[in-house]
Design a protein that fits this description.
The chain has 161 residues and is an alpha/beta fold. The chain folds into two domains: 6-108, no CATH class; 111-155. Helix content is 39%, strand content 26%. The protein has three helices and six strands. The chain has helices at residues 30-39, 46-60, 111-148; strands at 6-12, 15-23, 70-75, 80-85, 90-96, 102-108. It has a six-stranded mixed β-sheet with strand order 1-2-4-3-5-6. Helix 1 (30-39) runs antiparallel to helix 2. The chain is elongated. The mean pLDDT is 76.
């Protein structure tokens, strides 16, 4: 399968640069990135291959609906490659960190991705609070039972005569 791509100007993280654009019709899929890697592998350095492989990892870590209206920019050594689909409301970037290791980040979230991440965060907070309350509620009977039976966790004080 030949991946159609074209070269044009891109305004991204490092200003306006020349970029290679890869349109993805039904959402960006990890197969689009792997096809690009396969077709252009002879032109890529080892670092560029690792960057594209990190892009594949990024795509496997999100559900398919995120990629229907998305844009992923992979900063390769010669020029960035932009995989895009739909309106591009969810924007992701793959770049090298200070140690020259590939890393990825979310540059911009669309409405649904923002809502989903917000709900996950709120639900996590509610679950943490429920665990804390449950831990307190289950520890109260043990404390009361120890107090009523006369057993306590405090060391006995020697009587002074």
């Amino acid at each position: 399968m030949v991946i159609p791509c074209y070269t044009g100007w891109y305004s991204g993280r490092y200003g306006q640069t020349l970029a290679r654009f890869v349109p993805c019709l039904n959402g960006i899929h990890h197969r689009d990135i792997s096809s690009y890697l396969y077709e252009h592998g002879h032109q890529l350095t080892d670092t560029d291959r690792r960057m594209l492989q990190d892009g594949i990892t990024l795509h496997l870590s999100h559900p398919a609906w995120v990629w229907k209206d998305a844009e992923t920019t992979v900063y390769l050594s010669d020029m960035p490659v932009v995989f895009y689909s739909g309106y591009g409301t969810n924007k992701f970037v793959v770049y090298q960190d200070v140690g020259n290791n590939p890393t990825h980040a979310v540059e911009e979230k669309g409405w649904w991705l923002w809502l989903r991440d917000g709900l996950i965060s709120v639900w996590g907070s509610i679950a943490d609070a429920a665990r804390a309350v449950a831990g307190y509620v289950t520890s109260v009977p043990r404390i009361v039972a120890g107090y009523v039976s006369g057993a306590s966790n405090r060391p006995a004080i020697a009587a002074s005569a």
